[in-house]
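Table S2 (text version). Query chain:
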Amino acid sequence: MRGKAVFYPIGWDDNGLATERRVQNYFGVRCDPSLPYDPGFEPPGPPERPGANAGQQIPVSRRNFVRLCQQLTELDERSYEEAWRQLGLSVDWATKYRTIDERSRAVAQRGFLRSLGRGEAYLAEAPSLWDVTFGTAVAQAELEDRPVRAAYYRIAFPACGGGGCPPGQAAAEVVVATTRPELLPGCVALVAHPGDERYAGLIGRTVAVPVFGVEVPVLAHRLAEPGKGTGIAMVCTFGDMTDVTWWRDLRLETRPVIGRDGRLLAGPPPGIDSGAGRAAYQQLAGLTARAARQRMAELLGAYGCLRGDPEPVEHAVKFYEKGDVPLEIVTSRQWYIRNGGRDPDLRAALLARGRELAWHPAHMAARYEDWVNGLAGDWLISRQRFFGVPIPVWYPLDEAGQPRYDAPIAAADAALPVDPAADAPPGYAPEQRGQPGGFAGDPDVMDTWATSSLTPQIAGGWATDDDLFGRVFPMDLRPQAHEIIRTWLFYTVLRSHADRDALPWRHAAISGWILDPDRKKMSKSRGNVVTPMAILREHGSDAVRYWAASARLGTDTAFDPGQLKIGRRLAIKILNVSRFVLAALPQQAPAEADQAADRRSTSVITQPLDLAMLSRLAAVARQCTDAFEAYEHARALELAENFFWFFCDDYVELVKTRAYGGDGAAGAGSAGAGSAGAGSAAAALRLALSALLRLFAPFLPFVTEEVWSWWREGSVHLAPWPDPAEFPAGMAGDAAPADADRMLAAASGAIAAVRAAKSAARLSMRAPVSDLVVSASAADLAALTAVLPDVRAAGQVARVELRAAAAAEPGYEVTL
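Corresponding structure-token output:
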């Protein structure tokens, strides 16, 4: 509508853990990569009890599982497309892509290989956040804190071991408060704040780990919190990310305790060498973390190492955003992409990119900056799952058949996309898979954000359509919600900065959430989710769009059926008032009713009320344009709607008699009577209806398209956006002239007084009025005089008396 070609693609983000869980629950299956592919496998169908546990799910091969994922996502995406088409989402459906389709897989793998070639992607064995339910590592951006009830156990560590006691100090004990006593076998140090005088004499000495008898050092670190627990903490490998920081900064030993299944490992960690210590550990081996916690507390009690009763506490614990149990930290080999978490220069560059981006609303930039400043490590992109884009590398096997992880074999660009689990690397034959001197494929897939972070490249035809990519990249706008600034937006900026040295788009429009009527976040577990199709069918698409468009960017909005009803009423009113307006116009073929005809007709618009109305409409059109340019769509809707109701309730009623060529009570000699007055009204109505339909078109596309088709050729959505030049000379501008506003206010005030009197008397609006007395300032009376013929005709007023008064507001006396 602004004269530009719009590239508005649509894609489905369909790979990842959420899809896998849905497939497991829907079909009652689970993936077992050790099983062979069964080409004839058919799932038994959705289980009678959704969410069957793993023991009740049928194991299937990876290939079978991936096919079920594709089958279900295609089914879901058809439902999404149906809803979005009915809603009137104005995307170009010809651009549709899926983040798991061949094009997207190729782009994601190409992006990874380029990152690898530049040294931004790297493989490392390190502590990583691990979800034991999904059996995969997860990234910092996928975490959320949840309150968990726990208990502080106060454990006594015998002090003064090894190096002896400080001079003059007797052997003592150090009491540590922890919520995870089951990690005690993995304790590698105690840490106190360097300024905490209570433990100053212990720094550099050792204590004995109770039950297991391992000596560990007492060290100082700035992250120790003197006010938390007893002020001294045990460092275990690993209980939380602070343990990882201490382990890395203080160069501590590694004594893993928790396995990838969330259970304590079968054998004791290094350092537990005594028979008693190893025997104690065997009582914990194989237990879940919760069961081991209880057993460890019993052992500590039996050894006399607990001080006091456990103290109940509720604290925040890290969860994977889609997980059900707290995350563990295990050492694993993973792929990472540098993101500024450990590189101050890259962090600064990404912060500068954030400031270069135009944020709508502006305060959302703070969320981006807070995230970048809070990064604690690089982006972990590998996932130990199945339905995703494979990591496109293989590893040569040495003579013993062991992978050489330091020499990955990259896929050839021309071969993308590849699946290392099925394809052979360059220079190898398929039969060399798993053989000494042969190769092994990387078994992992990429984090779904590793693909989604390249959506501008996927949609724009990167490396496949250079002409299109050159025209659309960088793009203009990223619309998205606020909770994925840290993921989708940040990662997309990161990838574009690294590969293109530019932002991927110039603007970011950040929406809020839809909350339930009690302003609580919608959640399936809470049972307060409202799905769209029933609402679309009940209220209509335009009503739903009206409600959604009334929400400002960056603001959470409660689902409000009342707003849907208002939107439906508005759409119906547009139909009804359009029928009246078009009935008042000379009959024309659609080809004759266009913007050029509107401009030609402005010369016949001569009556003060018509000119004043169009002056206000010109100002509203300019204000709506400014609101859209400022990404304030809710303001644009509000401005158009406010004018529309004035147009319907006041202006149309005021000119109805004149538009149809009648004179009503105004008399044949009154101003505006006759063909000139009727022609002025008809031309003004025509121009106003055209402009209003175009102002409402972005919000209410269906009703505006319907009315447009009654008298215009083509689509309202391809018609020019209202421009001040369309309106009569002297009436366009950034604001309506004061005299025009005064005229409209005078006409509206007078007709409102007449209506109120008739309503109070329970008379028809067509009932005659004997006298109307208006007391007002000279300026208000002059304004009313200019539009008085239309007031008299609309109100069926026989006689009007105008009285000069010093009143701030006009006064009205109506005699029926």
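Notes on Table S2: Residues 214 and 271 are 6 Å apart (CA to CA). The chain has 22 helices and 28 strands.
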